[in-house]
């Protein structure tokens, strides 16, 4: 077990080393590309933003080996200017991140002790850390206020948040701004939810009374905006369902009036019409795939099927039927269907195509019949090949047996002596069997070739059938 663990550890160390080498390689390539750009201000800024100390001399010596022409007298000044800006950004981002994480501004002291800062000996910039922290702290309280507002919380919750946030610095202005935005979102979503469920906007009065009891600020305008926006989608969804369920605008107009609900008639009609256009397109496509042109029958049954005939019915059904019928009535399709043993309604296709499709069907069926014969021929060829291999193995075994019979002790001791009668009989039987087996091999190989040639011939016949079907 100890050896196994050691092996695993070695593999892990190798993996870590590989990753480190890859990272170092990528870092070197990046540094080389920086040198080739010749933008020393950018190079300095990257070092500063990474929390590194200013290291122009190292950068200059490295770049001189890559492209010395990019190292000029102004390089050092440009680098230092970029590094100063990058270093300031490093601390600004740290401060902003800490502020967003609800940490106090005193976290700066902890950042000075952080592993990265200590390892890189990053020069501190407290002023820029504080600037970043101030922004991040404000963003944190804005988000908190927004979340409270969207949850339908009362304004007085600010007092609780102020007490909770005293240790990290509470930003009343940012909290209130976020809460105002969230409160508006709260009422907007209430309006959306009511309209989505088909509830009249008169429900607002109930929401208002409930909100006042909870001391939640009321935004009638936001509620109405959400309701007005969603009620349109509500009628569009109903129209989409109604069009294939036997209902129209007249039914819904009466229904909306009875419920005290604003009826978005134009949007309803557009969605209702669009759904029926799709219905007749789908019907045409469904019939076009192997079924006759059934528009008159479908229109006659429209009331029974709880759908409506519209002005575009004939055009959209016919266009969809023709398109799908053209896809269905192809020789390739007829050939493939026949190969799979499916029946094809050739009679729904154009008369001038039907003879080609009939031929494709016949060829497809014959193609599959030949496929069965090819499989049998290939199976026969494999069986003959196996039998040849078995006979060859038997012959090799007999040859080894003959060698052992000939190497009896008395033959080894006396080269002039002859095999014993028993050994001689065994050798003769061995030789006869080998001769017979060699004769069998010739016949088996011939039968294997014939089976392979038959499969190849049938495959050529298949190719001819496919060509005739598709051309």
TrEMBL record:
Q: What is this protein called?
A: DUF2799 domain-containing protein
Q: What stretches pass through the bilayer?
A: none
Which branch of life, at top level? Answer: Bacteria
Q: Where is this region: Disordered?
A: 409-471
Alphabetized Pfam families for the sequence: DUF2799
Q: What species is given as this protein's source?
A: Undibacterium squillarum
By its UniProt entry, which PROSITE patterns does this protein fall under?
Answer: PROKAR_LIPOPROTEIN (PS51257)
Q: Composition bias, kind Basic and acidic residues: at what positions?
A: 409-418, 425-471
């Amino acid at each position: 077990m100890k050896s196994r663990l050691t092996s695993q550890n070695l593999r892990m160390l190798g993996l870590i080393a590989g990753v480190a080498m890859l990272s170092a390689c990528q870092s070197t390539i990046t540094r080389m590309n920086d040198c080739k750009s010749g933008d020393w201000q950018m190079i300095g800024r990257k070092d500063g933003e990474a929390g590194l100390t200013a290291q122009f001399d190292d950068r200059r010596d490295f770049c001189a080996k890559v492209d010395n022409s990019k190292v000029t007298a102004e390089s050092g000044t440009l680098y230092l200017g970029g590094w100063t800006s990058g270093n300031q950004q490093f601390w600004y981002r740290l401060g902003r991140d800490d502020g967003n994480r609800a940490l106090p501004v005193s976290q700066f002291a902890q950042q000075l002790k952080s592993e990265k800062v200590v390892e890189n000996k990053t020069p501190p910039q407290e002023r820029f850390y504080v600037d970043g922290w101030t922004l991040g702290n404000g963003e944190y309280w804005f988000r908190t206020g927004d979340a409270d507002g969207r949850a339908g919380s009362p304004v007085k919750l600010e007092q609780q948040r102020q007490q909770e946030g005293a240790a990290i610095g509470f930003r009343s202005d940012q909290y209130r701004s976020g809460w105002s935005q969230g409160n508006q979102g709260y009422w907007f979503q209430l309006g959306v939810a009511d309209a989505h469920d088909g509830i009249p906007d008169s429900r607002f009065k109930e929401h208002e009374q409930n909100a006042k009891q909870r001391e939640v600020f009321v935004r009638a305008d936001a509620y109405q905006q959400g309701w007005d926006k969603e009620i349109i989608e509500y009628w569009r969804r109903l129209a989409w369902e109604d069009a294939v369920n036997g209902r129209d605008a007249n039914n819904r107009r009466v229904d909306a009036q009875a419920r005290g609900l604003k009826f978005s008639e134009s949007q309803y009609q557009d969605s209702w019409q669009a759904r029926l256009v799709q219905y007749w397109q789908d019907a045409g496509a469904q019939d076009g795939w192997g079924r006759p042109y059934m528009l008159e029958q479908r229109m006659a049954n429209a009331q029974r099927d709880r759908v409506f005939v519209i002005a575009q019915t004939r055009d959209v059904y016919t266009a969809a039927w023709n398109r799908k019928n053209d896809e269905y009535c192809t020789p390739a399709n007829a050939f493939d269907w026949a190969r799979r043993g499916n029946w094809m309604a050739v009679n729904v296709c154009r008369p001038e195509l039907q003879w080609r499709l009939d031929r494709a069907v016949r060829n497809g069926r014959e193609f599959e019949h030949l496929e069965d014969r090819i499989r049998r021929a290939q199976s026969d060829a494999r069986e003959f090949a196996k039998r040849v291999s078995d006979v060859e193995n038997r012959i090799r075994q007999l040859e080894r047996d003959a060698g052992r019979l000939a190497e009896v002790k008395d033959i080894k001791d006396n080269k002039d002596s002859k095999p014993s009668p028993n050994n001689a009989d065994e050798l003769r039987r061995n030789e006869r069997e080998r001769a017979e087996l060699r004769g069998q091999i010739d016949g088996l190989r011939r039968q294997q070739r014939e089976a392979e040639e038959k499969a190849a011939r049938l495959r050529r016949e298949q190719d001819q059938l496919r060509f005739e079907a598709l051309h």
